[in-house]
Amino acid sequence: MTIANQKGGVGKTTTTVNVAAALAQSGLNVLVIDIDPQGNASTALGIPHHAEVPSIYDVITDDRPLGEVLQECPDIPGLWCAPATIDLAGAEIELVSLVARESRLKRAVDEHLASMSDTTRFDYVLIDCPPSLGLLTVNAFVAAAEVFIPIQCEYYALEGLSQLLNNIGMIRRHLNPRLEVSTILLTMYDGRTNLSSNVADEVREHFPDNVLRTQIPRSVRISEAPSYGQTVLTYDPSSSGALSYLEAAKELALRSAPASASAGS
Ligand code: ATP
Ligand code: MG
């Protein structure tokens, strides 16, 4: 699942790490792939990602097996991360001249998943994208089956969304026919403002089947957690932010479960 929105600061990374943490805490094996040169997801998961660390850069540009760069999150067993280092900032340009430049991440992920046994396999792979529609994001779209779009409950939220959807349509036509927008999550919801509820209503009206019922409130605890190298689920498990991400992850898991498994729950 690729977490994407070319708009910056809408909660992509926060959503990736907290949903991943919630899924892992419930006993699932989860992999977060950080393909944003900013490395924010790696930071939030407490994963070292200074320049010398083997990273997703080596996987994408140098064919290094994905398994060689994975690190387990120190606080949450079962949660793994392929970190991004600052080297990745150059990858956008380096990729242009490489063979199969759009599908390098897909190949690495598919090869790794095929090499895993049933007991160690990942239940979810979440890819945290940079705020652009460049080749790194294209690699994420090609590697994934689903797109998960976080939308910030602010006035400009819907601007740019049609461009994102057009791009996804283009990827579907040319590179990855199975790709679909499966999930939309409203983030940084501020219940005190009409603006937040108006934006939320509008998004729900446009995408009635995709928007999770759970909305993530604006919460100081959520924004503090990364500075301690933690997700909000370990930083302050009883905060409204942690509870809402747990709820969102539960919704997600129930939606993606086969109909027979989720029936009656
Ligand atoms: P970028 O486009 O730079 O990758 P992003 O889409 O990944 O950004 P985040 O880094 O997740 O966005 O969030 C942007 C900022 O907003 C961060 O400082 C984060 O801590 C803060 N933030 C995210 N979600 C919330 C929330 N629900 N309440 C308060 N602050 C939040
Ligand atoms: Mg980010």
UniProtKB/TrEMBL annotation:
Cite the InterPro entries for this sequence.
AAA_dom, DNA_Partitioning_ATPase, P-loop_NTPase
Pfam annotation, one family: AAA_31
AAA domain: residues covered: 2-181
- So where does this one cross the membrane? none
Query: What PANTHER family does the annotation carry?
Result: P-LOOP CONTAINING NUCLEOSIDE TRIPHOSPHATE HYDROLASE, PARA FAMILY PROTEIN CT_582
Q: What is this protein called?
A: ParA family protein
